[in-house]
Specification:
Blueprint (H helix, E strand, L loop, with lengths): L8 H5 L7 H38 L4 H8 L2
Length: 72
Amino acid sequence: MGKDGVISMEEFKGASANLDIEKMKKSLLGFREMANLLKEHEKIQVGITKAKYDALVAEGFTPVQALDLCKR
């Protein structure tokens, strides 16, 4: 790939493509780490939403009302 980001026809056809496998592996590891962080974030968000729902029901809201308030 040239400095301008354009791929030559030879590279496109696979004749002289220079793949940096180690760089690709590191990039994949980075994606996996990010996926794990996103999963953990979702677990925390779910816990917060459940606690909100439980608190609303404990305060006298009906389950349907509490669920509606948690959607916001």
